[in-house]
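Continuing from the previous page of notes. For each protein in this section, the sequence appears first, followed by its structure tokens. Read the first protein now.
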Amino acid sequence: MGKGEHTRTVILEAALAQASESGFESLTIGSLAERTGLSKSGLFAHFGSREELQCAAIDMAAQLFADTVMKPAFAAPRGVPRLWAMFEGWLEWTQRGGLAHGCPIHAASVEYDDRPGPMRDRLVGHYRLLQQALDKAVRIAIDAGHLRADLDIEQFIFDMFAIVLGYYHAARLMDDARAGERARAAFARLLADFAVPGALP
């Protein structure tokens, strides 16, 4: 990695840590200059605008999610075990990714859901890629004979998202110590509702 690429990575890691703590709207060239010890002109050399910096930071968050959740899950056996690996990784990805606070992608979706522009477009794009990956994993679970062929895949993925968002709410805002336990119980019920009889342990 060259010096310029290394510096850009250092800036984005600092931006992601700040976004996890205070949201993407807290990201400014000035705040990151202070956080990284770099000059404002130095940051402008890597990111021409605040918006460009925010977009690059959300891209880095999505890549970190892929590296800590999706790639390890692909090593799990095909079918329901892989879906479980994705779900578990999704619940724990901020800890696995070294982020001290909440999910920056979820935080950004709340910040930008009613604000058309590059950040919203970026988020929608990343969430669509996640939906495509989940769609493929569910179809594999059907082909493996673990889930019923008449399963409504879009509804299943909607329900899976809802469980994870409920987990974030309970764990982060409500300090529910049993949030993880409740989320896993809800996902187990969702799988059981569509399992082929005798296919799940």
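Done with the first. The second protein uses the same format. Note its length before scrolling.
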Amino acid sequence: MNIAITFRHMESTKAVKAYAEEKIAKLQRFLRHPLKVQVVLSTQHRAHVAEVDLHAGAEHFHATETTEDMYASIDKVSDKLEAQIRSCKDQKKGQERASDHLIPDAGGED
């Protein structure tokens, strides 16, 4: 697992960095391949922006969230990524089930 955190237009603090790492690291439990994540935390006037690029094997997820609190932005962006990962997994399960119906019965033709 590789998590890189970049602070833009704000001072980096250990507390925010540790919080972001903890929230993003929890997403590993939904994925088979090790995570490679780029987190960008920035402020624009009063808005706190959290932007995350997540790579796990061939899968790629991206989410951005803006709120008035950095911790809330990190929470929401983590929730968005979790929803994207779950949606992707559900689509794959649906494709596997649909493909089961397309396989012809080998013993029923004769």
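What the second structure shows: DSSP finds two helices and four strands in the chain. Helices lie at 14-25, 70-102. We return to this in next week's lecture.
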